[in-house]
Amino acid sequence: MKMKSRRKSILCFSTVALLFSALAPLSAFADGTTVTSDTYNQSLSQTLALSNLVIFKEDSAYTDAYVYGKSVKFLIGGLEYPFNVNNYQRVSWTIDDKVPSVDNVLTTKVAPKTGTSHEAKTSERLDRIKEKVNNNDLIYGWILPAGSEDWSKAGSVKMTYEK
User: Fold this and answer.
1) Rounded distance, CA 42 to CA 45, Å?
2) Cβ contacts of 111 within 8 Å, gap of 6 or more
3) Residue 131 predicted with pLDDT over 70
4) Given pLDDT bands bounded at 50, 70 and 90, which one contains residue 141?
């Protein structure tokens, strides 16, 4: 089976690019250090660990709430781990900056058994929320990690009903 010349050049280019991408990390060891599979993997693991610290820092969670039609949509995004029962029990949104309780919770979302999303969403009827939250009041987000009894803050957002 003959290969067209364009396909040959793409295949050659792809092979060369793959070779250079595999060798590029080794250039860091150009000072004469012997590179083994172990030192390469250790270097790669340290790089990945550092990048994860930047992406998933402890205070990266945020809260959002906005009016959509006759509903208020609630969101806690930027969760460190996927929102499921292995990582979280639930998230809540409150009318004040006190830990969620019967007196201050607007809505709660229980973690599903499975899930890969790093956010939790729910919604409530607009008229129900307007009974508890005035225009321009703050709404607070809270996270309850799996196996913990201590809630963590997930920021706040100003609730606005008018455009």
Assistant:
1) 5
2) 83, 84, 85, 87, 88, 89, 90, 91, 120, 146
3) yes
4) very high
pLDDT 10s digits, 25-81: 444 444 454 555 554 455 444 444 343 333 444 458 999 999 999 999 999 999 999
Residue 43: Cβ within 10 Å count = 15
Which of 59, 63, 64, 121 lies closest to 90, judged by CA? 121
Q: Is this prediction's pTM over 0.85?
A: no
Instruction: Give the mean model confidence (pLDDT) for residues 83-87.
Output: 96
Instruction: For the chain, give the DSSP string.
Output: -PPPHHHHHHHHHHHHHHHHHHHGGGGGGTTSPPP-HHHHHHHHHHHHHHHHHHHT-TT--EEEEEEETTEEEEEEE--SS-SSTTTEEEEEEESSSSPP-TTTEEEEEEPPSS---S-EEEEEEHHHHHTT--TT-EEEEEEEETT-S--EEEEEEE-----
